[in-house]
Amino acid sequence: MKRRTFGLMATSALALVITGCTQSKFRSYSGPEVTSIVVHKAQRKMYLLHHEKVLKSYDFELGFAPEGDKQFEGDGKTPEGTYLIDRRNPNSQFHLSLGISYPNEEDIAEARALGKNPGGDIFIHGQPNALKSRRGSKGDDWTWGCIAVINRDMEEIYAMVRNGTVITIRP
Q: How many domains would you assign to the chain?
């Protein structure tokens, strides 16, 4: 009887330790509204703003061919211009992700003029779920055109930014 009781207590204690050690990737935010996001590709800096005030800034990684504006699917570039955050993916294969409304009409026309598909599925996202730590340091661009941040930063961004937020991506 003592052995069984000890086993149950040990199992319960282990469950509490495991539960206590796992943090949810979903955070809450009760600060000022994020009214816009500004991304500076060359500096690898993203700013979340409440009107003109910077609330937070983040480092990030880009597509494997980061210089220049995205022209078509598969070019490895991150689009430049003004878009909206238009969707959320809590089950992303990259931790969490926020969709960017690329392509717009101008992007579509540019790609068609080249005889290409503009592509889509451009996101701000975390690191691949199979990877537990940051993939690389500044300059280690690896996405297909998305903006990648470390997971703890993505958790903050996901909590702070709402659908409909304007995002401006600058060279």
A: 1
